Recover the amino acids of this structure.
DNA sequence: CTCGATGCAAACGATTTGCAAAATT
DNA sequence: AATTTTGCAAATCGTTTGCATCGAG
């Protein structure tokens, strides 16, 4: 599958949008950090590499990433909008540690199948879903005993 | 199980908090509307009954409902905080129509069981989860054909 | 009477937008 | 050269908070 850099440039080209140093830097930083960064975390990291970059540019660029399909906005319900790189088309859900914030991407075909069944039972056609599992990971259970 | 009015008064009494006409009105309106109201929707409905009630009071009271356990905050990711009455302890997930906003509360023990399994596989102890299924209900599929 | 509760308006925090200047094609 | 992009600051939006006043117990 296409590397995000390439997919993004192609998207820009196809829309008469421009590749700028800021966009390059933001994408590079975003890829390096490859977790689930909030806009502000990314802004902080970007600013440490180039302090002249503005907050609004980071927000605008993340939105562009989402439009281009290389990233996806995810909402953990903590008031921050996060983005994650989309590698290909694979959908996934999240297993999140309440304590350390560790975030594991999961896919469970059995659950997805049951979701479809459930929707059918209520005569819904499913378009998408969000599933977040919150708990404590092994390490964090150890810490607080 | 205890009716919400009673549970709420008891909670107030136990904490030296006071039952006021505003709180009574807000709870009554909330119960009547018994869907998944956002703070502002509830505010609008309350204000139509008593225009002197302030926005802040509604926010504060909803938070109280959540603290007292008679309501729960749910976040559909649309930027609004919603609250729903908790009848007893039953947990449930949501099946939401993208078109008309219809919201069906669902519980599927099979899915819950698979979630537990999944968590165990990654050595997590699960504390809670959020699952939202989005799609189109029968009626809305009819409309736009 | 004593605190807690209220309404108002100002404050908030994350995100968005208007605008004039700067940079890409 | 034309048009998009940028950085800045001001604007938004939902929600929260400070404060003086009001009211429940």
């Amino acid at each position: 599958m296409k590397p995000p850099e390439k997919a993004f440039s192609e998207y820009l080209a196809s829309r008469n949008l421009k590749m700028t140093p800021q966009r390059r830097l933001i994408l590079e930083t975003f890829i390096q950090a490859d977790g689930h960064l909030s806009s502000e975390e990314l802004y902080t990291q970007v600013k440490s590499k180039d302090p002249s970059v503005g907050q609004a540019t980071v927000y605008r660029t993340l939105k562009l990433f989402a439009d281009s399909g290389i990233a996806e906005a995810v909402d953990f319900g903590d008031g921050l909008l996060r983005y994650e790189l989309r590698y290909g088309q694979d959908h996934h859900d999240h297993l999140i540690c309440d304590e350390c914030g560790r975030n594991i991407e999961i896919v469970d075909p059995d659950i997805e199948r049951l979701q479809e069944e459930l929707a059918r039972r209520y005569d819904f056609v499913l378009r998408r879903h969000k599933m977040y599992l919150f708990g404590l990971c092994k390490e964090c259970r150890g810490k607080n005993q």
Summary: The CA atoms of residues 37 and 128 of chain A lie 22 Å apart. Residues 16-18, 20, 22-23, 52-57, 60 of chain A lie near DNA strand D (CB under 10 Å from a C1').
